[in-house]
């Protein structure tokens, strides 16, 4: 199995989610299933079926998180410098609209575009890897071709 690159913050966030699922969500759903069982006939008990479905989701997410965390390779971006690579916080300007965007390139399990966390496997991140400040980048996105200029690279 390949290692999964991840920032320290991403790793900490996933560990916190796993702890929440194991110590709060799992016991709560077990209790809900026990209460639903007390209502009698399980074949027509919507509360029971809903609780079992939620339990299945929680157990699946726990297994997924344990697998990801087991393969995680925590990378500290503050020890890096130079051209764009994993962990870089990059400020770009859209060459067509002059709109500035700032993203941090992170692992796929911590990516969240609304929070400015860009998946390392995304077309934009792949196009940025190895570029330097002042470079122009052509990116083929589902919405068509985009051109960006790299304004700033920060490793923090």
UniProtKB/TrEMBL annotation:
It holds the Pfam family GreA_GreB. Necessary for efficient RNA polymerase transcription elongation past template-encoded arresting sites. The arresting sites in DNA have the property of trapping a certain fraction of elongating RNA polymerases that pass through, resulting in locked ternary complexes. Cleavage of the nascent transcript by cleavage factors such as GreA or GreB allows the resumption of elongation from the new 3'terminus. GreA releases sequences of 2 to 3 nucleotides. GO terms for biological process: DNA-templated transcription elongation; regulation of DNA-templated transcription elongation. Keywords: DNA-binding, Elongation factor, Protein biosynthesis, Transcription, Transcription regulation. It comes from Roseobacter insulae. PROSITE patterns: GREAB_1 (PS00829). Residues 4-74 form the Transcription elongation factor GreA/GreB N-terminal domain. HAMAP family: GreA_GreB. This is Transcription elongation factor GreA. GO terms for molecular function: DNA binding; RNA polymerase binding; translation elongation factor activity. It comes from the Bacteria. Belongs to the GreA/GreB family. InterPro entries: TF_GreA/GreB_CS, Tscrpt_elong_fac_GreA, Tscrpt_elong_fac_GreA/B, Tscrpt_elong_fac_GreA/B_C, Tscrpt_elong_fac_GreA/B_fam, Tscrpt_elong_fac_GreA/B_N. Residues 81-154 form the Transcription elongation factor GreA/GreB C-terminal domain.
